[in-house]
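Hey L., structure's done. Input below.
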Amino acid sequence: MSSVVRSDQKAVVAHTNNNKSAGPKKTSTQLVFRTKAPEQRALFLQTASDTNFDFIQTKDDFQTQFEAFSNVALQLLDYFYPQHIITVTNRDAYYMTPKIKKIMSLLRCKNKLMRKGRLEDSSALARRIGKTIERYWLLVVVVVVVGSWIRGED
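Output:
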């Protein structure tokens, strides 16, 4: 088979069925995670310490007391640490985590701001992304160092 366009490349693609995909089917998994920031934690702790939980003791049995406390705690958690849904596919790299996916989406937002000429906003977002990446890699290094220390490696 010869190409109509002048090229050194030659290829033959043969398949027996009508499926035109070249590989295993792409599967997607949605993961739920919560972002955490020092400011969120400070506000959460302040609000939790100011919350009056005395109404729980007015309940009759232990189960209803637990359910009342659990409802209040989950409302606080959802308010201060909202859930984010990230889709990870089987074609993503093995190290692709929800946090890295979130950083990538922030980078796309930063690039969009730069193209629009909003340089102050994009530089602020770039600093935030840099701090997030720094915290992530610091955690990775700590886990590796502590893991090797526990295993007795030098």
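The radius of gyration is 25 Å. The helical segments are 38-50, 62-80, 98-116, 119-151.

-- N.
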